[in-house]
TrEMBL record:
Coiled-coil regions listed in the entry: none
Gene designation per UniProt: Hhipl1
Disulfide-bonded cysteines: 612-676, 625-686, 656-666
InterPro entries xrefs: 6-blade_b-propeller_TolB-like (IPR011042), Glc/Sorbosone_DH (IPR012938), Quinoprot_gluc/sorb_DH_b-prop (IPR011041), SRCR (IPR001190), SRCR-like_dom_sf (IPR036772)
Keyword Cell membrane: no
Pfam families (alphabetical): GSDH (PF07995), SRCR (PF00530)
SUPFAM superfamilies: Soluble quinoprotein glucose dehydrogenase, SRCR-like
GO CC entries: membrane
UniProt KW Disulfide bond keyword: yes
Keywords on record: Disulfide bond, Signal
Highest taxon listed in the record's lineage: Eukaryota
Record protein name field: HHIP-like protein 1
Residue intervals of the SRCR domain: 586-687
Signal peptide: 1-17
Length: 687
């Protein structure tokens, strides 16, 4: 019999927004075919479903034929939630050290189950469904989230009570970007880091230079699963980079068999667009006890290097790292990379707050952080300098709240006693006497995982001056904070429609997952995003944020001189090209009917090639048929249904919504990157 406790059935705890398995690891794509839990065949938390199938069969053998027909689907659904990519949320695993034994069910579904199958739940009467704190994380509503949220663009249609801005796409066709930075050397280049471990150089007109500036893929550590929080997480240039050529990166790697967050120093080569990998000097290795909550930001202020770390992961900081000044986790650290004692990787600034505290780590600058994801230094007002030097951090919350903090010397930001302004654990928060409250908080009814941003100090959009602009990773929403007599007012940013965002490449759409923000040498603000949250996804984009209502004075905004970048022999240039309906050419081959056949594509007059049938379905076929001038797709076929092609296999693992104007807008593994043979060529039937 199913042993279910009523309080467990209606016990809902909802945490951070991203998918996560019961073992706190990210979900992945199984390599075996599922027989029962087919909803999670493409992405989930189970390598196979054989054990669940065995439990299901054993349970069904005990039921009458009537109960098998009526209750069998419920039993299947409930058992299979262990495989859901949101299993940690459904079982309340991240919010508690003791996950629930039963997944969270939406009230209407729970009511149906208890009404029709109450005989399976002895000693339990049919209850009235109780309200739940977050309808996003209960089954079966979560199933729609799993199917829909991983792809697609964000377009805010409700323009009421929000600031309307536009975006201008300046970079596409890169793997998931995690960070970008300028070198402050007068060249106005932008250096973009991909999570997989590659850094690219983009010229001021967003022409990409090849080969990459740095490639450390072979030492960058992650599980290659979807939603992994590890990888190459940040880069920053030394304040004197123009003269010493030094820059720093934060990345996940393995050291002595353990996962660590590593900050390393590198030096540029004589080729200004190529780093010397052999110059790596490890500044610090921080062991990580879990795969999540790695934090992720490094920055310079007043010549000192700040390193922001997460609490080490799992549920509620079980090790108490954030509040422990004897730990490097859950902290803002501050070190001196220029003045190093003999044999040391860095020095300790003399005004670090805990250098004389017994048992404390001298690197600690501030503490009580959960998972700071993106921090920035306010460069100050262009004219008055007001606000310069403030460090803003977005700290990802757990059950209920996301927060923004201004980081200051010696302050305690409260975790794991406080989440936002609310007490998270009464036994801890009641003993905190020096809690530094956040400057702003928003609840999980508005978003689930903050991506910290920047205070806008550019010239092109003067109405934005002084606004702190940030986002939520889970839903792609944009927000701003406006300072008002020492307090902060929060507002929504809506991307405008085609009547607002006109000309100049402006748009009201951006891909969903905002991973970071950056600013260029002039202070203009950019959004880094991806259409599928996986380091191996070739759906990365960068957008410039633009206020269409008022531009800056061109005589003021274009006065900065640009030092020309010297291109060494062998450097190739790849100019930015927007993706349009005609970027790819399509044809159908191998069938008598013109509307049927193997799909072949080519890009920029290159060779014709095929598409692998991994994840190939009707939505992908819709994009192809519409591009060929047909009304709709009737069928999507695989396994070389109309014969095997020849030459390259251009695309693999496409995940389209069906509304894209080109297959290149769909998440995929990258051009010519696949693990297929021509026996897996994809085909369509159009109408």
């Amino acid at each position: 019999m199913l042993q279910i406790v009523f309080c467990v059935l209606l016990s809902f705890g909802f945490t951070a927004s991203h998918p996560q398995c019961l073992d706190y690891r990210p979900p992945f794509r199984p390599s075996t075919d599922f027989l029962l839990c087919t909803d999670y065949q493409n992405i989930g938390c189970c390598g196979d479903d054989r054990e669940i199938l065995t439990k299901y069969i054993q349970k069904m053998d005990t039921l009458s034929r009537r109960d098998q027909e009526v209750c069998g689907p419920f039993i299947k659904d409930i058992l299979c939630q262990e495989c859901s990519p949101y299993a940690a949320h459904l079982y309340n695993a991240e919010a508690s050290e003791n996950p629930n034994a039963f997944p969270s069910l939406c009230p209407w579904y729970l009511f149906q189950f208890l009404t029709l199958c109450h005989r399976l739940v002895p000693d339990l009467s049919v209850p009235l469904p109780l309200p739940i704190p977050d309808k996003d994380y209960c089954f079966p509503s979560i199933l729609n989230k799993t199917k829909s949220e991983s792809v697609g663009t964000v377009k805010i249609s409700d323009q009421g009570n929000c600031m309307q801005l536009c975006v201008k796409e300046v970079v596409n066709n890169i793997y998931t970007p995690t960070a970008a930075a300028h070198a402050n050397d007068g060249t106005h280049r932008l250096f973009v880091a991909e999570q997989r471990g590659v850094i690219w150089v983009f010229l001021p007109d967003f022409t990409r230079l090849e080969p990459p500036f740095l490639d450390i893929q072979n030492v960058t550590y992650s599980s290659k699963r979807a939603y992994d929080e590890r990888g190459l997480l940040d880069l920053v240039f030394h304040p004197n980079y123009r003269f010493n050529g030094l820059f720093y990166i934060l990345y996940s790697t393995r050291f002595k068999g353990q996962h660590v967050s590593r900050v390393s120093e590198f030096k540029v080569s004589r080729n200004m667009n190529k780093a010397l990998r052999s110059t790596e000097r490890v500044v610090i290795d921080i062991p990580q006890p879990a795969t999540n909550h790695n934090g992720g930001k490094i920055l310079f202020k007043d010549g000192l290097l700040y390193i922001f770390t997460g609490d080490g992961g799992k549920a509620g900081d079980p090790w108490g790292n954030a509040k422990n000044i004897g730990s490097l986790l859950g902290k803002a650290l501050r070190v001196d990379v220029d003045n190093r004692p003999d044999g040391q990787a860095y020095g300790i600034p003399p005004d670090n707050p805990f250098i004389f505290r017994p048992g404390a780590k001298p690197e600690v600058y501030a503490y009580g952080l959960r998972n700071p994801w993106r921090c920035s230094v306010d460069r100050g007002d262009r004219v008055t300098g007001q606000g310069a030097g403030r460090i803003f951090c977005g700290d990802v919350g757990q059950d209920k709240y996301e927060e923004i903090d201004i980081i200051e010397n010696g302050r305690n930001y409260g975790w794991n006693g406080y989440e936002g302004n609310a007490c998270f654990r009464s036994g801890i928060c009641s003993n905190i006497r020096n809690h530094e409250p956040p400057i702003a908080v928003y609840g999980h009814n508005e978003g689930k995982s903050i991506t910290g941003g920047y205070v806008y100090r550019g010239c092109d959009s003067p109405n934005l001056n002084g606004l702190y602009i940030f986002a939520d990773w889970a839903n792609g929403k944009l927000f701003y904070l406006k300072e008002d007599n020492g307090s902060w007012i929060r507002g929504r940013i809506c991307v405008g429609d085609e009547n607002v965002c006109v000309n100049g490449g402006l748009s009201g759409r951006h891909v969903r997952y905002i991973t970071s923000f950056t600013e260029d040498e002039k202070g203009e603000l950019y959004i880094l995003a991806t259409n599928y949250a996986e380091e191996g996804n070739f759906g990365g984009r960068i957008y410039k944020l633009v206020d269409p209502s008022r531009g800056g004075n061109p005589l003021e905004c274009q006065t900065q001189s640009v030092i020309a970048s010297t291109l060494s022999p062998g450097t190739q240039t790849n100019p930015f090209t927007p993706i349009t309906e005609t970027t790819l050419a399509y044809r159908l081959v191998g069938a008598i009917q013109r509307n049927t056949g193997r799909v072949e594509i080519r890009w920029d007059n290159g060779p014709w090639g095929t598409i692998c049938d991994d994840l190939w379905g009707r939505k992908e076929a819709e994009v192809v048929c519409r591009a060929l001038g047909y009304r709709m797709a009737v069928a999507a076929k695989g396994r070389a249904a109309y014969g095997r092609g020849f030459g390259p296999i251009h695309l693999d693992n496409l995940r389209c919504t069906g509304n894209e104007k080109s297959l290149l807008e769909c998440p995929h593994r990258g051009w010519d990157n696949h693990d297929c043979s021509h026996a897996e060529d994809a085909s369509v039937v159009c109408l």
